[in-house]
Amino acid sequence: MRRLIIEEPYSKAALLSQRLAVFSLAVAIVGILGVGRGLDLLAVLGGSLIIACAAILSAILAFVVIWHSGRKGAGQAFAGLVLATVLLAYPAYLAQQTLWLPRLPDISTDLTDPPNFSLSREALAARAGTTPPSIVIARRKAQLKAYPQIQPILLDLDAPEAFDAAVKAVTVTGWKIVEQRPPGGRSGLGHIDAIATSFILGFPSDITLRLRPLAGQTRIDIRSASRFAPLDFGANPRHIANFEAALTAIVDKK
User: Fold this and answer.
1) How far apart are CA 154 and CA 99, in angstroms?
2) Is there a contact between 222 and 207 (Cβ–Cβ < 8 Å)?
3) 6: pLDDT strictly greater than 50
4) Which of 125, 132, 219, 254 can bridge 212 by disulfide, Cβ–Cβ 3.0-4.6 Å?
5) What is the residue extent of each domain of the chain?
6) What is the mean pLDDT of residues 124-144?
7) Is the C-alpha dihedral spanning 36, 39, 44, 45 positive or negative?
8) What is the residue-averaged pLDDT of the chain?
């Protein structure tokens, strides 16, 4: 006598969770690629996060249904939960940065006299016609408490050697040089304008360096400004730290 074996059906919520998570990943990839190419697809990225949240809720519902009814789909629900959680991890990190970091979209090693950005036609075109605005000293002083380690850089090199090292450090850091002028002329100052982009979404930060010759030394001041104020998610102090590390490594090899 044959026994009729009836298999438990899959939980619809589990299948939905997996499908929503995969779909949210696909939408996020489209949004990231579009933003990286200069397209305004931030709304698409936001939509992918909403879909990922729906996938997590569906996974939780699926676990409840599976626990009570014994239906299949725990693996699908778990996969949807993990994929959606991974997708939300980076936005959650940015949200945490927003809560804990001060609103300082413009950081400089010189608080009283920050380096100025070039206003040449080439520099303006690279910055999409915009120039970071000036910030009053009183507001800049908040930087001292938030980032006391950000100080002017002093090199025991003459100006031409320091300029060459700075250009190499900018290149090593992966920034795009917009304009460079070696020390000399009436002011005697050197100047480098560059643009840094974030790793995932490619958000730009405008950076300028000023080289001032001193007696037996060269002082380098750097200013980094987020183009999407008032938040920088810690990018500007990170840019300055990365440049200083690259510059130190280059100078130590000399």
Assistant:
1) 33
2) yes
3) no
4) 219
5) 12-100, 106-252
6) 83
7) positive
8) 85
Distance between CA atoms of residues 17 and 122, nearest Å? 49
Angle between helices 12-36 and 42-69 (to 10 degrees): 160
Tell me what pLDDT residue 178 has: 94
Q: Quick one: average pLDDT of 129-149? A: 83
DSSP character at residue 72 = B
Prediction pTM value: 0.72
Please compute the mean of the pLDDT values over residues 152-179 and round it to a whole number: 94
Which residue stretches of the chain are H helix? 12-36, 42-69, 74-100, 121-126, 137-140, 142-146, 159-173, 235-252
Strand-pair category, 217-226 with 190-197:
unpaired
Rounded mean pLDDT of 165-177? Answer: 95
Cβ partners under 8 Å of residue 168, min gap 6: 246, 250
The rounded distance, in Å, linking the Cα atoms of 43 and 203 is 15
Mean per-residue pLDDT, 40-57: 81
Cis peptide before 230 (omega within 30 of 0): yes
Rg of the chain over all Cα atoms, to the nearest angstrom:
26
- Tokens 């995969």 correspond to 22
- Tokens representing 238 are 């990170």
Confidence class for position 41, pLDDT limits 50, 70, 90:
low
DSSP 8-class letter at 114: P
Distances (CA, A) of 189 to 195, 220, 248: 20, 10, 21
Q: Is 174 helix (H, G, I), strand (E, B) or coil?
A: coil
Q: Give the CATH number of domain 106-252.
A: 3.30.310.80
